[in-house]
Amino acid sequence: MIGNVVLWFFELTMILRAAEAMNNNGDCRETSCGGIAVKFPFRIVDRQPAAACGYPGFDLSCSSDRLLLELPNSVNLSVSFIDYASQSILVTDEACLPLRSNVSYSPFRSQYGMMDEVTLINCTVRTEAFLHEWSPSLELISCLSDPGGGGYQVFAIYGGTSVDDPRVQSCSMMYDLTTPLEIPGSFFLTWNEPNCSVCESQGKYCRVLQQQHRHFKSSKTECYHFPNQGIKKKVITGAVFGSVFLMAVLVSVCYKYTLVRAERKYQIKVKKFLDDYKSLKPTRFLFADLERITNQFRFELGKGAYGTVFKGKLSDEVIVAVKVLNDSKARGEEFINEVGTLARIHHANVVRLIGFCAEGFQRAIVYEYLPNDSLQRFISSADSKEQFLGWKSLERIAIGIAKGIEYLHRGCDERILHLDIKPHNVLLDHNLNPKITDFGLAKLCSTDQSLVSMTTARGTVGYMAPEVFSRNFGKVSYKSDVYSFGMLLLEMVSGRKIVDTEPNTEDKVNFPEWIYNVLEQGEDLRFDIEEENDVKIGKKLAIVGLSCIQWNPVDRPSMGIALQMLEGEVDDLSAPPNPFISKPPSSRNVIATANRICRRLDAIEEVEG
To answer: How many structural domains is the chain composed of?
Structure first.
């Protein structure tokens, strides 16, 4: 395909050159020099190099806006005017004597209007003054006189003045000449051949017959129609735009071909994956089946970065969620990650995979349907008591999530790192049992391997561990999921998103640090406390959450230990160290410290992004 692109560029270049040649080759259009129009039979040699543009012997040159006629014997006459109708040209001979130029070997003949007789006389220097005084029509011919001024002087006497006058007796007569009266030093030249009057009378142009020899004595002319400039421009424009259009089509085809090749590559990858996981028995659906199951994708449950989730029915009793992956995002990786991970998982706190669709460019994943939406729905509003689940339910949900993550880390043949734990990816069934979902960013590694390699950050800002942003904080491991789980617990405790805005202020509060300071000062975490035991549950969730979000991965507990802490009593837990590095701030500067932490996270994200 690259060769074809190069070939098309070459052809486009050839077309443009051909268009330029059409515009210039044999272009004998009228030009000018010094305000004098020049056309056939004349040509300006350096502007119209094609020999057919001019008749032999009619070559002109243009220098500093002076038009010169080049005659044989290296004679150049300055052109003042060209009359194409009468076929005459007014020239000036800059030589010393009028008519000194020899035009007998050129296609031109001399022609004059009113003429005057001129007599050349040779006088001594002593007679110069009285000659000027005696005859105003006397003119010194300097080129024939003694250049030193000490000898003879040659004068021209105009107007038929008699040379028999006694005052010129010392002068001797040299020649009698005839010269034109119109312009001193100027005269007309005429030509008989070529005669283009016949062509012009027909509305045509004249040029040298292309088949004839170039010598002017045997050259003939022909009439022709000069190409219409409007048509020529249209031809050139059409050629250029047509070539550009074809080039654009070719580039589009190449781009499409590249996409198709990439898609085929991933199709092969997906096919190999499906062959490898046949034994796991997930149901493979046709895309037409999914259209029927979802009633043409009518009821949308939600939309994420990688696809849109729709509600569907396998039967009257079985309701499912169908996640249709985006073409631009999937590229096979998201699909393989999610299906490959869920196909090997069977746990009460992990969403169950029912099937998938891999048909051409269409890919979808079918899950069990969970009616209570995500955990995010119940903790996104701090002031809605209708949405608050109660501390006992929150404790049970937290324990369920911990069990699910612990199973991913230790309960499978391979360790599974979710890398995107957050309330939005925890679904609740009709009994509010939590189920972890969305494994598109998951990474697999052997159970004896704790670290994984990553080329780009994965996860959601606010829940991502510091080492996911920057390797300066350590390497990515299962402890990264522990950090995300800790942030999730603190969000459950605060009842707000991790970074929120206080009413009537523009200062953002970092709630994990706010929770740490509230615990340190012995204050209640929330106002909706119904029983004394609720205080203990809230405090326990907060302590476990703060323990999980330590900046150094080594200081975080494993999910197994975090689960034990959640299932134990709060009195058995020790206060966690300050995860925010700096000294604990007072209640008056919590907001300033929170802003500093937020800026630190933003800076880390910028560096790694």
So the answer is: 4
